[in-house]
Amino acid sequence: MPEWSQAGGWGLLAGSALLLGAALGWFVPVPRRVIASIMAFGAGVLLSAVSFELIAEAHEQGGLLPTAVGAAGGALAYTGANVLLARRGARHRKRSGAQPSEQEAPGSGSAIAVGALLDGIPESVVIGASLLTGGPVSLVTVVAVFLSNVPEGLSSAAGMRRAGRTSRYVFALWAAIALVSGLAALAGHTLLGGAPPEVLASITALAAGAILAMITDTMVPEAFEDAHLLVGLITVAGFLTAFALSHA
Question: What is the mean pLDDT of residues 188-202?
């Protein structure tokens, strides 16, 4: 199978976890404490992937300066876009109980959709770019993104349901984002092919910085809100799970 199709397929697979989580959040009455616990686990998984896969790989490819500049740029870009989206009602897009309805904040539905894309694209680009080294895809990154996407979709869909959004909106949104995740992975592989190691390092670190900003801004607050007594322990469990996968 051509590498470009592999990249798109792995990105689509990781993104499909959002749709799986949304189905659980919509059809299964999952307690908010359980949602928060799953979100804490997913945050730990992503933290490990960012540390031991993305940042470490970027440093190995291009050294400290491209890695630091890329990570800082990713965090700044994510934070700036997130501030704009927060003003449109997407501040709590991953929350299971704090999302505004369309009546309370007109346009918040569209902002939530854009915010979900903002959260998912950096992860998918990294999945596609991981094939550029000539080896197989980084399964640790794919697994980490998949495991973290399930609680994201679950929590957000539960919040959308409480905010009065329709099932058609919710599932069309997450299906579209899963498709865009595959396209972003494909783009990451296609557009970065032949790029110098320093450029690849900067792009990888850029995505890592954006993911790290996303974790601390959206996933950790949701986890802490309803599972604050156990959130540290659960997050460490997720971190160690991904760490074990990366050294298997």
Answer: 82
